[in-house]
């Protein structure tokens, strides 16, 4: 009854048909990208112009479709069934009884096939020796879907959340601001740091093939960022857009500067629990530029090659062939092995960092990256990536004022997990009787106590 009482939702989506994609591809193929490069020598202006042009072409070439979405749609009702249903309705309106009977028979036959396929899918999930598949099958049978907590649309709440997410921001004290420590909003981003000397050659240089490969791996259903460039556009027009983005990426690496338009983020607060008691009950999920995410993937692969062998062996997150199960098994191994001897015992301290990614200090991170043999140019590029970031909070249709922050890494960025792991890489135990296991921002300190001596554990 609740499903029947639920009102349908009016949705507008873009129709990425083959014809529309071909029109958009032709538009970019006939574009003379050298005109954009000749118009300005400023990297920010070039990137802003290119992304705005791509978004403009996408809006013109890709048609939209508005439809009603019903909450009681059957899970087995496929797109083919919708077409057959429309054909049946058209035959009924035209009054052709023979055509109507044919359309009805085709729809009835296809419904049986769709139900059987869906039933076989559920049986396969329930019979699989996999708890995840079984639980998925049960939820599909019962049509169970936990309603997500809804954020309240409130302008003051949006502004308060934006300030709250920037609470780790280091204030820049000046003679005028020493007497006034209130938080102020910056209408424009501060001046970007000076690039290195022209004689410095970029350590990392991307090629068109790499950029093309990353663009083709975009997930079309993902949301676009503040620049309105959708991942579906990048995926469909990878061949046409790869050359111009390759030039922008390489110039960014050469100057050790990240364009400001690629650093903007729109934060969507997601409630952590149904009942909200404070600002900390909202998890900040940042919508960033899809173009920047593609760029980050190229830098991420480069950083992993350099820092992979130097990472702490007790860090189990964001690494290949490692999981939380490995961390639990290793902790149990150390504890049980230590308890085999009479008189030994163990103490465990669980530590969880609050807003871990937001606490990253770019200058301190740069020093740590230098110690990990990361080239200076890449360190400067990462510092530029993390500083002078413009962000706003969106609650429904309401948006907060824009704030510029130079602390932390947004949740949702490709580089953020690895940067946090590198930021805490030197957080290790100095005593062999104390094991410090890490999984992202969750840290477990295990003290293997012998002869009642807890000094090493307490010192750690």
UniProtKB/TrEMBL annotation:
Residues 251-460 form the Reverse transcriptase domain. Pfam families: RVT_1 (PF00078). Transmembrane segments: none annotated. It comes from the Eukaryota. This is Reverse transcriptase domain-containing protein. It comes from Cirrhinus mrigala.
């Amino acid at each position: 009854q609740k499903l029947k009482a639920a009102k349908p939702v009016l949705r507008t989506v873009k129709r990425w048909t083959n014809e529309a994609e071909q029109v958009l591809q032709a538009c970019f193929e006939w574009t003379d990208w050298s005109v954009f490069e000749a118009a300005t020598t400023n990297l920010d202006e070039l990137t802003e112009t290119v992304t705005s042009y791509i978004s403009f072409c996408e809006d013109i070439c890709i048609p939209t479709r508005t439809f009603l979405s019903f909450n009681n749609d059957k899970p087995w009702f496929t797109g083919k069934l919708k077409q057959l249903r429309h054909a049946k309705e058209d035959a009924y309106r035209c009054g052709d009884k023979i055509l109507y009977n044919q359309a009805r028979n085709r729809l009835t036959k296809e419904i049986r096939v769709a139900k059987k396929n869906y039933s076989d899918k559920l049986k396969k999930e329930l019979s699989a020796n996999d708890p995840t598949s079984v639980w998925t099958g049960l939820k599909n049978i019962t049509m169970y879907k936990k309603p997500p907590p809804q954020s309240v649309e409130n302008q003051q709440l949006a502004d308060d959340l934006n300030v709250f997410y920037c609470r780790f921001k280091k204030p820049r004290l000046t003679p005028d601001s020493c007497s006034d420590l209130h938080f102020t909003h910056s209408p424009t981003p501060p001046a970007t740091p000076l690039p290195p000397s022209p004689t410095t050659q970029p350590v990392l240089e991307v090629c068109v093939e790499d950029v093309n490969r990353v663009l083709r791996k975009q997930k079309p259903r993902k949301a676009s960022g503040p620049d309105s460039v959708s991942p579906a556009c990048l995926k469909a027009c990878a061949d046409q857009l790869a050359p111009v983005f390759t030039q922008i990426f390489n110039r960014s690496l050469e100057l050790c500067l990240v364009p400001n338009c690629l650093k903007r983020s729109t934060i969507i607060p997601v409630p952590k629990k149904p009942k909200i008691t404070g600002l900390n009950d909202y998890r900040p999920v940042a919508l960033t530029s899809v173009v920047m995410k593609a760029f980050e993937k190229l830098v991420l692969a480069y950083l992993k090659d350099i820092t992979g062998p130097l990472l702490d062996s007790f860090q189990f997150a964001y690494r290949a062939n490692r999981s939380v199960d490995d961390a639990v098994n290793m902790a149990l191994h150390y504890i049980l092995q230590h308890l085999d001897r009479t008189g030994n015992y163990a103490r465990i301290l669980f530590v969880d960092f609050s807003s871990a990614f937001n606490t990253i200090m770019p200058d301190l991170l740069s020093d740590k990256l230098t110690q990990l043999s990361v080239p200076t140019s890449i360190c400067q590029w990462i510092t530029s990536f993390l500083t002078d970031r413009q962000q706003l909070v969106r609650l429904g249709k309401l948006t907060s004022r824009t704030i510029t922050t130079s602390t932390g890494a947004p949740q949702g960025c490709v580089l953020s997990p690895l940067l946090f792991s590198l930021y805490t890489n030197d957080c290790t135990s100095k005593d062999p009787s104390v094991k410090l296991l890490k999984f992202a921002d969750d840290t477990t300190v295990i003290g293997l106590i012998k002869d009642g001596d807890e000094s090493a554990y307490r010192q750690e």
